[in-house]
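[step 3/7] fold_predict: job queued, chain A
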Amino acid sequence: MNPTEAPETEANQAAGGGEAAAPGRAAKTGSHFIGGEWRDPISTDTIEVINSVTEEVMGTVPAGSAEDVDAAVAAARAALPGWKALSVQDRAGFCTLIGHGLQDRAEEIAGLVSQELGTPVTEGMLIQASLPAIDFTSMEFLVEELPWEQTIGNSKVIREPLGVVGAITPWNYPIHQIAAKVAPAITAGCTVVLKPSEMTPLSAYLLMEVIESAGLPAGVVNMVTGTGPVVGEAIASHPGIDMVSFTGSTRAGIRVSELAAASVKPVTVELGGKSANVILDDADFEAAVVNGIQKCFINGGQTCSALTRLLVPREALPAVEAVAAAAVEQTAVGDPTDPTTQIGPMSSAVQRDRVQGYIEKGIAEGAKLVAGGPETPEGLETGFFVKPTVFSEVTREMTIAREEIFGPVLSILPYDSEEEAIEIANDSSYGLAGGVWSSDPERAIGVARQIETGQVEINGAAFNPLAPFGGRKLSGHGRELGPYGIEDFLTLKAIQL
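[step 4/7] structure written:
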């Protein structure tokens, strides 16, 4: 099937409303994708996928089993010799085809994710649809940046694929997070067994359709849907899996690492964050605060690298609060299919309740409520909506300053010196991202060098999908994106001459 000729299906109907789903993806979502085929699951158990706007069931997928994982691993191992024997340029060429297929279906992706997750369609086109395509199409030129073979003294050092990769991905960027693992893994010469999040699995089926249409050899990419405790743990502990790449919560990442350790397989984990955005005393406060709120509220705040702690000079606190309150007042919350909406619903009832619970805790611990609150937004009683919320006069000991909320909640913390600002920024068990604002770029870079995170943006600089992405401390280890993401799926061999 050509990617531009997809039949009307459950998922694309969900993307734009309309009539009941016709055969097509609706039939495929009852299957796993194993060995290039849509295979019936061994178990009849299913998982319901809930529309985040209507709170209605929009589809079901199999609750996979360890036996399904066995079949997927067998298919991946069978495909491995032939796949890694291809040239790296040929492997990257397949990624280009997949990327173009995703570009052709960008509107469908944005529409589907808006229902499955709640991302506003306008934001979805920019992030949920465009980033996965870049993840794949960039492989063709990134492979040229890696020294696949080099001579050091009397040794030839070569880079080889690690083997079969287990990829376990989260719900907040459902296709991008898959693409950020699958694209570099298969380019490196690995084959993949994928478990997408059970909360947003329908978009993963769309990606499998594109992979199938691109003519990728059978078994190179396999997908088993299901829960973390069953399918995720079966992948992490499987003796036929050579490496695990995980993105998700810190708790789950620790569990995956423990299971993988039994067979001493390498693991990369991209976990949570509580990133600080430091506004220095010479910054443009209005621009910094407005941009800071946007960087906190992206994808409804359901972003591990969201800048959720805003650090400002104490004397500037009243002005910052006024700008923040005005910015939140102008933030449109509502139906994610409306192109004017900036924040849609949370991904689930559980996530909505979690976020509202943190807002209540912030109030109880004495933080100053500047905007928002724990109540459901007026007129949005159906759907998993929360009010975008800003707290001020937050201390570093408060729960909302220390724990990842994963919702549109910003904490403003005052500081009295640049040294204290750096100290507060680093006073976290996480180390994923950060930001610095200053009218002096060199001063900003000097502060950025002292922040203990995997990445720092200066004056609101844009995310770079070709730069390394990953964290320190409880935010994980390993790097995705760019040539650095390919390296994680390679191992080194020295041949002495």
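[step 5/7] annotate
The first helix runs from residue 10 to 16.
The two ends are 49 Å apart (CA to CA).
exit 0
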